[in-house]
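Lecture 7 notes: from sequence to structure.

We start with a single chain of 63 residues. Read the sequence below before looking at the structure.
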Amino acid sequence: MVDHCRPALPIVATPRSVVDAVPVDAAKVARLRRLIALGDYVIDPERIAAAMLASDLADDAET
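Now the structure, written as tokens:
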């Protein structure tokens, strides 16, 4: 079997500057944690798939 994928780097190997550069919406994180804790977090696979496709298409347009 041939594996063409490079192994992912562990999160601890991520440079601190990259982690610090990602903006975090604390209110959104708190809301999501609350929904998950209550069992009210609804996963919308179609929305996730659409966002993944849009991201991939945007990446392709940049190259």
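The chain has one domain: 11-62. Keep this in mind for problem set 3.
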